[in-house]
Specification:
Bound molecules: acetyl coenzyme *A, zinc ion
Number of helices: 4
Number of strands: 8
Helix content: 10-25%
Order of helices and strands: EEHHEEEHEHEE
Radius of gyration: 16 Å
Largest sheet: 8 strands, mixed
Strand content: 35-45%
Length: about 170
């Protein structure tokens, strides 16, 4: 399978100007840039090997957004979990959203929505039954984004984050 088909250039309205942003699969060379975005935009930091193992195991759905200088300005990564469903012993595959972030100056242009929709299509290759994620109950912006994709808040996970904040566990049938 060619990689060209996986790379698409979208034009997003940034600083009131149409700027080409490339959304494509993450490569090993991109990890440094991904980590930079994560450390700037989210309090949950992960060690390098964590990103590397997600890239090794679930490369299809690990996507990055780059500006016209090739700088990483956003990313999304998922893992796949095989677990029994709540109401039967049948095993199901869950696509678990590990992390998504877009640099502040590139926000509100549809980049996260593009990362989400592209990666969710790619995840189907892993025979996903449903998509799941946790999000801080105070993260109104991200909750809005997930609702736009028809995710539903399934339940609350108490004190899910290290600082004691609760998470919504949101799910969507694939
Ligand atoms: N206020 C309200 N809703 C918003 C806002 C906002 N400021 N920004 C985005 N949204 C919602 C809207 O529903 C929007 O759709 P609309 O434009 O049609 O109204 C939808 O999200 C898509 O917006 P995008 O422009 O695609 O989102 P953006 O590229 O700005 O990125 C993101 C959204 C990733 C949440 C960004 O704000 C960010 O990086 N935040 C910090 C990191 C973070 O919180 N990540 C999620 C943590 S949870 C997890 O990773 C599982
Ligand atoms: Zn999670």
């Amino acid at each position: 399978m060619g990689t060209e088909k996986d790379t698409r250039t979208n034009y997003f309205n940034i600083f009131n100007d149409k700027k080409p942003i490339v959304v494509r699969r993450c490569s090993l060379e991109d990890l440094e840039g991904v980590i930079e975005v994560n450390e700037k935009e989210l309090p949950e930091d992960y060690p390098y090997f964590f990103y590397k193992s997600i890239l090794d195991n679930y490369p299809e759905s690990f996507q990055v957004a780059c500006n016209n200088n090739g700088k990483i300005i956003g990313y999304i990564m998922w893992r796949v979990e095989r677990a029994p469903s709540i109401n039967s012993l049948k095993l199901m595959n869950k696509g678990h959203l590990v992390s998504i972030a877009v640099l502040t100056s590139y926000r509100r242009s549809g980049i996260a929505a593009t990362l989400l929709s592209n990666s969710m299509k790619k995840l189907k290759k892993y025979k996903i039954d449903k998509f799941v994620l946790e999000v801080r109950v105070s993260n109104y912006v991200a909750i809005n984004l997930y609702k736009k994709f028809n995710f539903i808040a399934h339940n609350i996970k108490e004190k899910y984050y290290r600082d004691g904040e609760n998470a919504y566990y949101m799910t969507l049938k694939a």
